[in-house]
Amino acid sequence: MSNPSTPDPSFLRGLTQRRLGRRDAFRVAGFSAAGLALAACGVKGKGVARPTTSAQAQSEVEKYWAGKVKNGHVDFANWPLYMDPDHPELKKFTEQTGITVTYKEVIQETTSWFAKIQPQLAAGQSIDYDLMVVTNSIQLTQLIKLGYLVPLDHEKLPNFTKNVGERYKNESFDPGNVFTVPYASGMTGIAYNPKYIDTPPTSYAALWDPKYKGKVGMMSDSQEIANFGMFMLGIDPEKSTPADWEKAAEKLRQQRDSGIVRKYYDQSYIDPLAKGDIWLCQAWSGDVFQKNLSDGTDLKFVIPDEGATIWTDNFMIPKTAANPVDAITLIDFFYEPTIAASMAEYINYVPPVPAAQEIIRADAAKATGQDKKTLEMIADSPLVFPSPEVYAKLRTYRTLADATEQKKFEGIFQPITTS
Amino acid sequence: MTEIQAGAGVAGEATPDQVPAIELDEVVKEYVSHGEVVQAVKGVSMTIGEGEFFSLLGPSGCGKTTSMRMIAGFEEPTKGVVRLHGQDVTNVPPNKRDVNMVFQSYALFPHMNVWDNVAFGLKRKKVPDGEVRRRVGEMLEIVDLVGREKRRPREMSGGQQQRVALARALVNRPRALLLDEPLGALDLKLRQHMQIELKRIQREVGITFVYVTHDQSEALTMSDRIAVMNDGLVEQLAGPREIYERPATKFVAGFIGTSNLLSGVARAVNGSSAVLALGPEDRVIVPIKEAVAEGDTVELTVRPEKIMISTERPEGDLSMVEGTVSEVVYLGTYNSYAVALAGGAEITVFQQNVHDSTTTAERGDTVWLSWQPQHSYALQ
Amino acid sequence: MSRVRAALTPYALIFPGGVWLAIFFVVPTVVMLSLSLQSGNVADGFVFTWNWQSYVDGLTNYHDQIIRSLAYGLAATLIQIVIGFPVAYWIAFKGGRHKSVYLFLLLLPFLVSFVLRTISWQFLLSDNGMLLGPLKDLGLLPHDFRVLATPYAVIGGLAYNFLPFMVLPMYVALERIDPRVLEAANDLYANKFQTFIRVVFPLSLPGVFAGVLMTFVPATSDYVNASVLGGTNTTMIGNVIQNQYLVTQDYPTASALSFTLMALLLIGIFAYAKALGTEDVLEVAAR
Q1: What is the radius of gyration, based on Cα positions, of chain C?
Q2: Where, per UniProt, does this protein localize (chain C) (predicted)?
Q3: Best residue of A32, A263, A402 to probe chain C, by most C CBs closer than 10 Å
């Protein structure tokens, strides 16, 4: 129980720190602005045929990069607190290349970010950024389909080719990494508070267990709950069909209507979990890890036996970028193993560069005290460096092919959370 | 300052065998303002008779309104007793007192029409509907508002609102009606008309009126008796004629009408009058009430209209002084002269234009002022 | 010349506000109306097709949320009147020299961001938090009792978050009542209770009316409280609209729902004004 005279530190932290805004957190912010911006500008879009053959892709790349030169500067848009606030990696980059970086934490959520940049990109105007990080999502698929992204020249990405783990290449939402390359990954699994739960849940069935009635938290994101509903029914979400969706939705409705679900959360689930308002919930791996590190909580994260999804935040260059060469140079810089390690040490999400693990181990060996313990923990964490057994259970999101499919999908799952 | 009880021989006084309508007995009211105790009323006693038109007259801040609010029950006296018809009501709340009030700004209920305003008190007293209708109707007739029952206060003129306020209070047939500067917001013409109206209504209903005003002419016109108040005390309590003709104090003399003040050393004292030394040719005789010794300084007052002005020294047993005309103002029915005496005092004289409109004297002329000694009063 | 200027002055005065409203209210409203009748999707673009289907879909799928929003808004408004009136009354009549201090104290919590204030309720009302925890420890409440993620939390949050907009107009109406009018009632044999019922309350009605308008409308269309304090089956129409805009990116349905809500609120306001006799009430307010 918290002492009434002193605010719960986790509460204050929750108000001020990074939970606000990562991924789909706080949809409340920026709603009207985004909506009206779109409304006022009118909404225009036009599908662009995706290059279907590698030869076609190659010609697109050549066409774009021809004559592009280094300008000495790059504007980088990222999520809040997705990098050490001192930006040691960016400083090192400037030292090495002479390219200066303006780093802005302007992306609060995928949806509103998309709503913000879409009209400008549609009009062929600059969005003021050369580089941005977007989660694999419906919006990312749309960015690609609408032709808003620069086809990446892999010749300018030697570190990517050399250092990035095979499973982060060639992902279903962008085969061949034509437009995107990974920034960091995380898993969606079950988090629980061992203070209230004696037997660690190993299956999705725990989230449907009536003994946890009113103490289960689910996510408000349609794809996230859809995945859980499908895993519960033994369906691989990546390969699911609309018929599977209906079945999963029925399962999720039953979970809701029997009062098991307390609430559908955005990223704000972590504090209620720590406080005991909910005992177990859908969660993102990095959140649990960081919460334990920063607040000394003992929350647990499990990847259920049935499997789990892995998602990836990705680098991409908007079509109207002024400094694409500088941007791609910076992207590749992040795949140097030491840089990847340094990033993972701070953000605690899965780095796309497997070699980072050994470097963190080496750093741990050199460090002392609390730092040593923390670094060891990170290096050994299956959540930052999933083992092959874990990887074997991981699936990616179902990529929704077009607007019709997207509408169908949302139409099935959104009413569950907006009941 | 001496306190003046309603004495014998005063007009309109309650007859001893009758219970007085209102009695204030040594009433004191103190406020705490900014940490300091302020006495608004410093010990006031008065007895107001049944059916009397009684005025509390004085400048603002003199305690007249506070005194009235203690009668109504809005203020509780710090000390002293308030009686209504012999009953001690000092701690009785306003809604349990059989007196009603007409407020300065009327305080009509803005959300009710005329009828509902007037019927308010009767309904609270649970008077049967039929009787409410009858009495409200009658009262609207008395105040001449028939046909305007459905009007809202803000749709009416000041005079009409005033009459609604009056009706709203009178319809309850209170034992006494309290009126707090009720005509203050009206223009002169309407005020004069309402003065007569009020007087008529009072005669018609026969209820005791207690009337607070700072307008001396209003008080003189309407009242049976007047309590002149100053600085939380009653300076004089008497009928209008007495107050005007025989102001008891310098304050009253100054506050009521225009007064001339003269002072001089008593040269000879002869029982009920004294001869004052002024200029060498002057002769001033003044009736005195209290013992005055030769050599005492005596102040006297004489009203401007009692003074005659002449170029020759008048004959007879008059008081007379010599002076120089410093100002002549033609005022239609009369002329007003300002005459400077040798001693420095300035005397105002009103002279009626009885014969023709020529003036008796011009500016700079030396004139004689004279008056009957009994028209002047020594002030305490 | 000066007559021309005098004639133009009123227009000059209304010009900045008029332009502001035209650009930031009228234009978006028209665009939104147009959007609600378009069909298509973000990727392929939207085309105006007189597509009334969005209205049909919106009402079919979300009538529960619309009714719930109106019910929550109404409940919150009633709670605000019950809580707010005594506060406004006390400040207006008993506040004395410190009225402005009390008003400031009333507003103080509202200097904090709306969202943060609502989140702080999450902290206060947590299942084992500083309010419920001790009561549960003492056995006064069952262990599975909760306030958060229930309709009560949402309604409570709505009532709290819009409280000043209820209290301030009521305060203004009460404050302008001439104290002598109350004395007059007292003088005319009304006791305190009767004075309140017959005089104070009727005279405060314009304030209550304004307060209801200023709280019911935003409370009904709110989405923050439901998303922060609600649970399952507490979603309000504001959340649905927001979701339709940002997540599903179904702008026509979102616009159609916005318009439906706007229409319902306008009808409600007019009915309410009619029933209360606005003109009479407002006349009193104008005094």
Answers
A1: 23
A2: Cell membrane
A3: A263
